[in-house]
Amino acid sequence: MLLDKLNLLISNAIKGAMVNAVQRPLLDQVEIEKLRHIAERPVSRTPHPHDVEHRQYGDTRSVYRGYGLDYEESRPYQPGDEMRFMNWRLSARSNDLFMKVFREERRPSVFILVDRRQSMRFGSRSRLKVTQAARLSAYLAFLARQQNAPIGGVVLNKSAEWIPEACGEVAVYNLLSQSNAACPPLEDDNQKVSLDHTLRLLLSMLVRGSIIYLVSDFHDLSPLSHPILLQLSEEHRIIAINVTDEREKNLPNAAGLSIYNPEEDEDIQLDTSNKALHQQYHQRASAHFDAIKNSFSSCGISYIEIDSEADDFRSLVPDL
Question: For the whole prediction, is pTM greater than 0.90?
Answer without folding.
Answer: no
